[in-house]
Amino acid sequence: MSEMLMAGRTALITGASSGLGARFAHQLAAAGARVVLTARREELLAERCDAIRAGGGKALAVAMDVTDEASVQAAYDRAEAMFGPVDTIVANAGMNIEGPALDVDASAFDSVLAVNVRGAFLTVREGARRMIAAGSPETRRGRIVLISSITAQSVSPGLALYSASKAAVLQLGRVLARDWANKGVNVNMLCPGYIETDLNSDWFNTEGGRKQIAKWPRRRLMGADSLDGALLYLASDASAYVTGSVMTVDDGQSL
User: Fold this and answer.
1) Does the keyword Oxidoreductase apply (predicted)?
2) 233: annotated active-site residue
3) Is 12:21 a contact under the CB 8 Å cutoff?
4) Does position 204 have pLDDT exceeding 80, yes or no?
């Protein structure tokens, strides 16, 4: 991948204070993009931005609640004021509440759907409106990447809410891709498999976690860098003829 693959682009990433979102922001900046990191945890966002700037990148931290329409709009306003129109969006913010469906209450359901589905919709709708107003029907450079999951298409016990929300993200993305096909905005979905993180390392070191890994064809967790190539491809001009697609990167875990 060229170090300047994203040169001239302004990318907004949700859920960028930690985990995959932080990784995405660093990779997009390293590829030449101006990056806008959004999340609710302002201190962590500031730390991520400082690290990107220290490496020579351009970054802005913006506190944003993806479930709040006014907050989303204000974040785009700040991004535009600093870097100009956003032409690349990575809708990554998400949450999970695990447990048997029989024990999950309605408030948990509402919380997961609010962040994972409503939040994704509000983020990309506002972004698409602004891309179109800025001329994407002519430039054809609008890029939206919705982060889904392999659990959207495979059965994972105890993950009913999360799986349902990520399946909704897939269909949301397909429909938006069709709706915006003539607006110069490409919408694609990236479905990661299980990646080793601080949040899941304890589980995968238990007997149950080791058994789960042993069921996968390659018997391993993916590393933090496993999505870099797919993310850069979908976010850049390289994917000019790709929209409405679902890209699964799971090292064969769902086979």
Assistant:
1) yes
2) no
3) no
4) yes
DSSP H/E element including 178:
helix 160-179
Contact 17, 44 (CB under 8 A): yes
Strand 246-249: give its sheet, edge to edge: 58-63, 34-39, 10-14, 88-91, 142-147, 185-192, 246-249
pLDDT digits over 39-55, tens only?
A: 999 999 999 999 999 99
Tell me the whole-structure pTM to 2 decimals: 0.95
Domain spanning 10-192+228-248: CATH 3.40.50.720:
yes
- Ordered DSSP codes for 233-250: HHHSGGGTT--S-EEEES
Catalytic site residue from 162, 194, 233, 241: 162
3-state secondary structure of 138: helix
Q: Give the tens place of pLDDT for each residue, 117-148.
A: 999 999 999 999 999 999 999 999 999 999 99
DSSP letters for 179-201: HTGGGTEEEEEEEE--B--TTTH
Question: Is 153 buried (19+), middle (13-18) or exposed (0-12) by CB count in 10 A?
Answer: middle
Q: Is the pLDDT of residue 242 over 60?
A: yes
175: its two tokens: 């429909």
